[in-house]
Specification:
The protein has about 70 residues and is mainly alpha-helical. Helices cover about 55% and strands about 10% of the residues. It is built from 3 helices and 2 strands. The chain has a two-stranded antiparallel ribbon. Strand 1 and strand 2 form a beta hairpin. The chain is globular, with a radius of gyration of 12 Å.
Length: about 70
């Protein structure tokens, strides 16, 4: 069973084991990104340019929500 609690990866990047599994499925090296925004941009590029399952889009939505709630000055 995968852990769904997010863990600090580096900088402002927090991922769960399930998130990491999805990224690895699409061969996305999440460790090379300096920020969650860079990772989101890469996921958006993949979604635009290839057929993917809903899991990658769901992950992008999750990361976008995280970025909004925890990184945006309100």
């Amino acid at each position: 069973m995968k852990d769904n609690f997010t863990k600090h990866i580096k900088n402002d990047l927090y991922l769960s084991d399930s998130d990491i599994e999805i990224l690895e499925k699409y061969e996305i090296d999440y460790l090379k990104f300096k920020s969650v925004k860079e990772l989101m941009f890469q996921i958006e590029t993949i979604l635009r340019n290839s057929d993917t399952e809903d899991d990658l889009e769901d992950l992008l939505i999750k990361l976008s929500d995280y970025n909004y709630y925890f990184q945006t000055n309100k």
